[in-house]
Design goal:
The chain has strands at about 1-5, 5, 10-20, 25, 35-40, 45-50, 60, 70, 75-80, 90-95. It is an all-beta fold. The protein is globular and about 35 Å long.
Amino acid sequence: MAIGGYPTAFILKDTSTVSVGASSSQSSALTNNSLHYRIVCSCDTHIEVGSNPTATTGSAMLPAYTIEYLVIPEGSKIAFLRFSTQSGTAYITECTR
């Protein structure tokens, strides 16, 4: 994410985790009213965002250890599903400016 060609800096706040495995797992409802989140997973994973999401093999793919910044509506959840045979952990960090 860039503003005026410069990297956007965030203040990192609370981090929650979700186990990523062979079936879709959801986060708790997200409550950061600034709506910005930093997502990183320890394994290749599919992600889906919504009020009651289920990640499938057709969901967006996030490679392992790739940091992704997302704007997610308050009250939404993120679902995770491992891409291959390796399970891991997803880290969801609230961000603010």
